[in-house]
């Protein structure tokens, strides 16, 4: 593989890595779930003391990451990562029993993350970093197998950055969308330029089949089959990635012809 081609792939992987790494907290990448409780006074002249609640949380649950906001005579407590219903109920019950003035739980919300937190930013960054490393290795030692793996990882990482840029969050659907065209790009990188695959016809045919499959799945009415709704969402997201996928496919063919 010509060093210039590997450098172009490296640039794409670095762009995906920067896109996934930049910025602070993002729900689509970092959301770990959590619980929000609002404590209100029982008596008309009472109030929730935020300092007392904060001191109680530090003493009883110092290991938890939480945010406490006073809202008039109420306290709103948000605890990151606490998604077990029984634990939330026990925390609220104990706080109500030990607070100086009578309180009640006005409302509580417990929200679980759509995927495990480790599958958010940590995995996305690991994929992009591995793609970048593979192209650094390819620049030094151009091995087709490493290049094919690097192309697959770069397509996946760039796809994740793409769907997040569209405002999506990391979920099963977004990962499937980012994976949708990976087989075609990897096949093109691995086979284009070889005697039996001189024009990359196998990879291009696979790319066309994947585009057609995304269009077909996206057109299906699966509202009555809940377990397949996310697959339809993935197909819809994958169709937004067609143009970048075609560009990466052309780059993959160029990669093989520059050997």
Overview of this protein structure:
It is a single chain. This protein is of the alpha+beta class and 259 residues long. 60% of the residues lie in helices and 12% in strands. The chain has eleven helices and four strands. It has helices at residues 3-21, 27-30, 50-60, 85-98, 121-140, 144-165, 172-179, 182-191, 201-219, 229-240, 242-257; strands at 34-41, 65-71, 74-80, 103-111. The termini are close together. 34% of the residues are buried. The model has no long low-confidence stretch (mean pLDDT 85). The chain crosses the membrane at residues 123-140, 147-167, 173-190, 202-221, 233-254. Keywords: Membrane, Transmembrane, Transmembrane helix.
Features:
259 residues, alpha+beta, four-stranded antiparallel beta sheet, 11 helices, 4 strands
Please outline the helices and strands.
Layout: H1 3-21, H2 27-30, E1 34-41, H3 50-60, E2 65-71, E3 74-80, H4 85-98, E4 103-111, H5 121-140, H6 144-165, H7 172-179, H8 182-191, H9 201-219, H10 229-240, H11 242-257
Helix pairs in contact: 1-5, 1-6, 5-6, 6-7, 6-8, 7-10, 8-9, 8-11, 9-10
Keywords: Membrane, Transmembrane, Transmembrane helix
Transmembrane segments: 123-140, 147-167, 173-190, 202-221, 233-254
Residue-averaged pLDDT: 85
As an assembly, this protein is single chain
- CA-based shape: elongated
Task: Round the Cα radius of gyration to an integer and report it.
Answer: 25 Å
Task: Return the structural class.
Answer: alpha+beta
Strand content: 5-15%
Q: Give the CA-CA distance, first to last residue.
A: 4 Å
Largest sheet: 4 strands, antiparallel
What's the helix-strand series?
A: HHEHEEHEHHHHHHH
Strand order of the largest sheet: 2-3-1-4
Counted beta strands? 4
H/I helix tally: 11
Low-confidence parts, pLDDT < 50 over ≥5 residues?
Answer: none
Helical content (DSSP H or I, runs of 4+): 55-70%
Keywords: Membrane, Transmembrane, Transmembrane helix
Transmembrane segments: 123-140, 147-167, 173-190, 202-221, 233-254
């Amino acid at each position: 593989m010509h060093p210039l081609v590997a450098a172009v792939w490296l640039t794409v992987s670095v762009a995906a890595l920067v896109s996934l790494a930049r910025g602070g907290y993002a729900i689509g990448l970092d959301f770990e779930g959590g619980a929000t409780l609002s404590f209100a006074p029982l008596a008309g002249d009472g109030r929730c003391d935020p300092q007392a609640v904060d001191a109680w949380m530090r003493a009883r649950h110092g290991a938890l990451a939480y945010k406490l906001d006073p809202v008039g005579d109420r306290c709103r407590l948000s605890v990151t990562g606490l998604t077990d219903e029984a634990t939330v109920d026990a925390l609220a019950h104990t706080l109500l029993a030990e607070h100086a003035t009578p309180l009640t739980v006005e409302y509580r919300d417990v929200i679980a993350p759509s995927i495990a937190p480790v599958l958010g930013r940590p995995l996305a960054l690991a994929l992009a970093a591995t793609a970048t490393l593979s192209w650094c290795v390819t620049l030094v030692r151009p091995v087709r197998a490493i290049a094919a793996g690097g192309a697959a990882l770069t397509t996946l990482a760039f796809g994740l950055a793409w769907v997040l840029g569209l405002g999506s969050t990391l979920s099963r659907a977004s990962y499937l969308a980012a994976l949708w065209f990976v087989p075609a790009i990897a096949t093109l990188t691995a086979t284009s330029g070889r005697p039996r695959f001189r024009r990359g016809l196998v990879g291009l045919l696979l790319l066309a089949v994947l585009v057609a499959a995304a269009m077909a799945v996206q057109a299906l009415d699966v509202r009555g089959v809940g377990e397949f709704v996310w697959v339809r969402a993935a197909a819809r997201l994958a169709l937004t990635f067609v143009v970048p996928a075609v560009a990466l496919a052309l780059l993959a063919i160029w990669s093989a012809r520059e050997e």
